[in-house]
Amino acid sequence: MTNGVGVEIRGPVTVVSIERPEVRNAVDRPTAQALAGAFRGFAADDSQLVAVLTGSHGAFCAGADLKALAGDPERANRVDPEGDGPMGPARLLIDKPVIAAIEGRGDAGGMELLLWCDLRWPAKTPPSGSTTVGGGCR
């Protein structure tokens, strides 16, 4: 595991898991970089045919790690318009399928990761989404 991201090779399948249960798998900059790196590695490996993105310990991803964003510039998610996105791989264009195995909620930036995946396979869990949609605008 590197910076809260686990990568497991199972034959032609690469399983990438967010491993930060203490923050419901929220993503800080090192985690975002590790996620992007894991998917770049998957894309470059011709023996790998499909990737699965999942979260650990009953949570898919709670979005950006707001404590890191507020308190530590080195761990704050990058927001530059070029390069990797704040959540890591969401700007990558990969020509192989990525499946989201959804166990637990995927909120805010977690929803960004879910939407980046080609296919979403939910377990029986609460819905994912963004609590900011609508934001009081009526």
Structure description:
The protein is an alpha/beta fold. It has one domain (5-122): 2-enoyl-CoA Hydratase, Chain A, domain 1 (Alpha-Beta Complex). It has helices at residues 29-44, 66-71, 109-116, and strands at 5-10, 13-18, 50-55, 98-102, 119-122. Strands 1-2-3-4-5 form a 5-stranded mixed beta sheet, covered by helices on one side. Helix 3 (109-116) links the parallel strand 4 and strand 5 (119-122). It is globular and about 40 Å long. The chain starts with a strand and ends in a 16-residue tail after the last strand. The model has no long low-confidence stretch (mean pLDDT 81).
Architecture blueprint of SSEs:
Elements: E1 5-10, E2 13-18, H1 29-44, E3 50-55, H2 66-71, E4 98-102, H3 109-116, E5 119-122
Could you give a short description of this structure?
The protein contains 3 helices and 5 strands; from the N terminus they run ββαβαβαβ. The chain has a 5-stranded mixed sheet, with helices on one face.
